[in-house]
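Fig. S4 source data, part A: sequence.
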Amino acid sequence: MTNDELAARIKETVPLLLPEHAMVQLEKLERFDNYYYSTHNRFRPLPAYRAKFDDEETTWYYINASTGEILFRSTATKRMERWLYNGLHSLDFQVLLANRPLWDIVVIILSLAGIALSYTSLVIAWRRLRRTKFLKATRATTLQSSKS
């Protein structure tokens, strides 16, 4: 099957993924977007089609343009989780992933900020514990001297 035949077949069969809902958009991706991307431990091929539907979950399907295989299904909830979990925990934003030295710099700065915050918390806790230990010792001494 040629690429043109496969593309035509994909375009006619993708709406059947959710037959009770209309397909809003079908576009061919030549570059990764914010939800479909490769990382060091997960390879995703390009080009791919992204099909958007108007169902309750606002489902998106990503389809391999070379094989017609469904690669990934995304819903509004999964896209929100992507930003809250992967975005904030892995810092896998396209701007940072495309400029790897920038990603390293951001991670180092955030790590140093975390170390500084941890250190200041330890200093405050240590001072507080020392002060309460000192106050208890002073009270105990005061109580013993008043009994004598």
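Fig. S4 source data, part B ends here. The chain has a mean pLDDT of 87.
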